[in-house]
User: Fold Pyridoxal phosphate-dependent aminotransferase from Heliorestis acidaminivorans.
Amino acid sequence: MPIAKKIENQLSQSSWIRKMFEEGGRLKALHGADKVYDFTLGNPTDEPPQAFHKTLKEIANAPVPGMHRYMSNAGYPETRAAIAKVLQEDSGEDLTAEHVIMTVGAGGGLNVIFKAILDQDDEVIISAPFFVEYKFYITNHGGLPVVVQSREDFQLDLEAIEKAITDKTKAIIINSPNNPTGVVYNSDSLDKLHELVERKGAQYGRTIYVISDEPYAKIVYDDVKVPPVLGHIRNSIVVTSHSKDLALPGERIGYIAVNPQIDQVALLVDGLVFCNRILGFVNAPALMQRLVAGLQRETVDVQAYQERRDMLYNHLTSIGFEMVKPDGAFYLFPKSPLEKDIDFVEAAQKHNILLVPGSGFGQPGYFRISYCVDKEMIERSLPAFTALAKELGL
Ligand code: PLP
Assistant:
C-alpha cells in the first residue's frame, strides 16, 4: 500500500465539495460555463478591498532589508500587537502581542491548537452541521471527534453538549457565523457555554477549552453583531484568518488569539508557538503579516454579500424551499425537499445547479448553497431553481 491505511480511509470519505467541483468542470465543458450554476465552493470571487492593494504597492515600492527572512515562530511583534489591540477593543480583555500567534490560515491554526493541546484519545466536541475538515484536523493529532446535533434552528444545543462531555473532553469547537448554516451564536449561549465548561472542568479537574473558529466574524448582515467569544468565555482560544473577510484564501494568513485569563496561559502560548514550528509551518507568510497589520478594520464589501443572500433567500423561499435565514457567512443551508439529500443534489445537477449535500457537513437532509459567487450567475440560476422546484412538486 503506497499510503497509510488511515489516509486511504479518509480519502474515501473526503470532500463532497471536491467531488462537486469536478462535476462542475465536466458540466461546464459540456454546456458552456455560463449555463452551469456552481454554488459549491467557499472560494470568494470578490477581490480584496482597495486598502489591501494600496498597502501591497507601498510595501513593494519600499522594501525593508530582511523582510523575507525567518522570524520568531509566533510572527512579527508589530502585527501581533496590531491584532491584539483590535481584539482588546472589541472584547474588553487585556490582550497583548504575547497572546497572538500568526498562522498559516485558520486551517493551519486549528492544526497547531490540536497538536498543542491533545493527548492521545482526548475528545473534541463538534456541533453538526460542521466544517468537514474539523474531523481530519482532530484525528491528525490523535484526538477523537465527538459529534453532537445542533438545535433545529442550528443554535448550540447546550444540553446535548453537556451530555457529551466526559473525563476525556479537551475542547469544544464553535464556529459562528457558521459554515454551513450562516447562524450566529448569541451572547446568552456563549455565557451558558462558559458556565458549562467551568463547571465540567472543575468536576473532572481539567481545563476544557472552547475553540472559536471564526473566519466569517466580519461577514454579518442587518446590523447583527457577533459577540466576542474572548469577552464571554474564559477558557477561549480564537482561531481565524483573512481568507474570507479580506478575500485572501490563497495567501494563507490567519492567527490564534488566546484568552489572557486561561490558567498557565504562558505555557499554552509556548506550546502553540512550538507546534507552529514543528508542524513545519515555521511562521505565517512574512509579506502577508506586514500587509494585514494595518487592515484589521477592513473588510470586503459585506453589503454585496447581503444582496446575494437576499436574492437567493427571497427567491428560494418564494418557490417553496425552507431554511433558517442566515445572519452571516456566505452560505444558505435549506432543507432537502427529497428525503435523501444526495438524490436532491443529483436532481439539481440535471438543471446544471451544483450544490453540496448536507451529508458532507454531518447533517443529512439538507444542502448547502455557497453564494460567494458572481451576482450575475445567481440571477441566471433563478429560473433553473424554479424549474427544479416545479419538477419536485414544491
Ligand atoms: N473554518 C471554517 C468554518 C471554514 O469555512 C474554513 C474555510 O472554508 C476554514 C476554517 C479554513 O480557512 P483558512 O482558509 O483560513 O484555512
About this structure: The radius of gyration is 21 Å. The chain is about 40% helix and 15% strand. The CA atoms of residues 208 and 345 lie 38 Å apart.
